[in-house]
Amino acid sequence: MNLIYVENLIKEYHSGEESVAAVDNISFSIDLGEFVAVVGPSGSGKSTLLTVLGGLTHPTGGQVVIDEIDVYALTAEQRADFRKEYIGFVFQSFHLIPYLNVLENVMIPLAVVDAPGAEKTEIALGLLEKVSLADKARRLPDELSGGEQERVAIARALVNNPPIILADEPTGNLDSTTSHSIMALFRHLNEEGQSIVMVTHNPENLTYAGRFITLRDGKIAQNSEALKQPLIERIPINN
Ligand SMILES: Nc1ncnc2c1ncn2[C@@H]1O[C@H](COP(=O)(O)OP(=O)(O)OP(=O)(O)O)[C@@H](O)[C@H]1O
Ligand SMILES: [Mg+2]
Fold first, then answer.
1. Cα dihedral sign for 131, 153, 88, 175?
2. Ligand 1: distance of its center to the CA of 122 in Å?
3. How many angstroms separate the alpha carbon of residue 45 from the centre of ligand 1?
4. With a 6 A CB cut-off, is 42 part of the ligand 1 pocket?
5. 222 located within any domain
6. Which among 10, 48, 216 is the best mutation to test ligand 1's pocket, defined by most ligand atoms within 8 Å of the CB?
7. Which of 19, 180, 197, 221 would give a disulfide with 214, using CB separation of 3.0 to 4.6 Å?
8. Helix %, strand %, coil % of the chain (to 5)
9. Under a CB-based contact definition with an 8 Å cutoff, are residues 133 and 106 in contact?
10. Is residue 57 within 6 Å of ligand 1 at its C-beta?
């Protein structure tokens, strides 16, 4: 089933006289349950594409349709509700709030959820358990390693149980062991049914996805065939 449908998408940025088409008239679709990696050189438009997919950046032209909802035909308020219901965003920089502890950071998206506080705490602790950080729930972000901060950001993106996870370079500054454990977590989430679009520079991460889209100068340079099995089952990662 078609989950994300993008048609003739354009995002231009203007600075002074100059205009850059960061996303330059691209079309593709993603099925429910897919794990798609978006790759390409620095400046090729990966982050821009992801924020447009996530309802965060209004495109200059074209359409983003998610679960049959035309995302940019919604009002800003409807789009905010749409994001809360559908999207878990893991940003390129973690965006953790420095004066809130780990648990409080993870609970941010639950602020708008109408449920007893104890229930929300339980949900957030459950997520921290999943990313192996339950024992550090009361620490502040700067008392954590980079990989741990990343896992907090992932837990926060997942706390509303969104059907779609958009992750921008989630293993950017991590060592390879931590990267692999984070990628294994994403793969596990995908197996449990969440659809994932992940920007990555790291070729090793490609082995976890079922398909990849390569961007170059805002255009699609390659859109690999969807694979029945994740690539990881075909390409051993340690050789
Ligand atoms: N807010 C902005 N204003 C003007 N130009 C921008 C803005 N954000 C991005 N760009 C430009 O748009 C193009 C695509 O940027 P984008 O951040 O999407 O690339 P990227 O593929 O994510 O790169 P990286 O791998 O370095 O994160 C680049 O030329 C960039 O300079
Ligand atoms: Mg980027």
1. negative
2. 38
3. 6
4. yes
5. yes
6. 48
7. 221
8. 35, 30, 35
9. no
10. no
Q: Domain limits at 7?
A: 2-233
Half-sphere exposure of 22 (CA within 13 A, CB side): 19
Flag whether 63 is in a domain.
yes
Write the CB contacts of 124 (distance below 8 Å, at least 6 apart in sequence).
Answer: 103, 106, 107, 110, 155, 159
Is pTM beyond 0.70? Reply is yes
CATH number at residue 21: 3.40.50.300
In tens digits, the chain (239 residues) has pLDDT values of 789 999 999 999 998 889 999 999 999 999 999 999 999 999 999 999 999 999 999 999 999 999 999 999 999 999 999 998 999 998 877 789 999 999 999 999 888 888 899 999 999 999 999 888 999 999 999 999 888 898 899 999 989 889 999 999 888 767 788 788 888 889 989 999 999 999 988 878 888 898 999 999 999 998 887 655 555 554 444 43
In short, whether 45's Cβ falls inside 6 Å of ligand 1 is yes
